[in-house]
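Weekly structure sync, notes
Attendees: PL (lead), two postdocs, one rotation student
Agenda item 3: pending single-chain targets
PL asked that the sequence for the first pending target be pasted directly into the notes so everyone works from the same version. It is reproduced below exactly as submitted, 158 residues in total.
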Amino acid sequence: MFGQKTAFDYTIGIMALLLMCLQVYLVVQYWPDLPERLPTHYNFQGKPDAYGAKSSILFLPLLGVGIFVMTTVVAMYPQSMNLPVKVTDENREQLYAKGTRFVHILRFLISVLFAYILWGTIGVGLGWQNQLDNRILIGFLGLMALTMLWFFVGKAKK
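Predicted structure, written out during the meeting:
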């Protein structure tokens, strides 16, 4: 399932899938109540600075599902990854395992980020809040950066 090899990978794969389902659910659940004009972009402070049609809320779940499918396929075929070091018979298994783990973690973080942005956009559209919490956005972007550092710095040492 999802190309994972460990219980951790299965767990974050299932959690990422549930977050994708949550996004679809949120759009379906709140669609009738959403205004015709919704935020489509937020500035660095988390305040909306661009607006679009109600249908623009469909973009994030669709993009999320696309990323989920793409990263799932990549994780199933780790030999397709463009790794930062040469793959040899000696390091192949370790590189593919770490590369697959990297993809799974990144997929999960993207799913969480997209779910938060979607929920926040619904909240702004319905007047529950005025903006997204930029501390949460910065935190998730920081986690993604740390995940990339963990992977790429670890590969550079090999």
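Discussion points:
- The chain is about 65% helix and 10% strand.
- The longest helix spans residues 92-125.
Action: rotation student to compare against the earlier draft before next sync.
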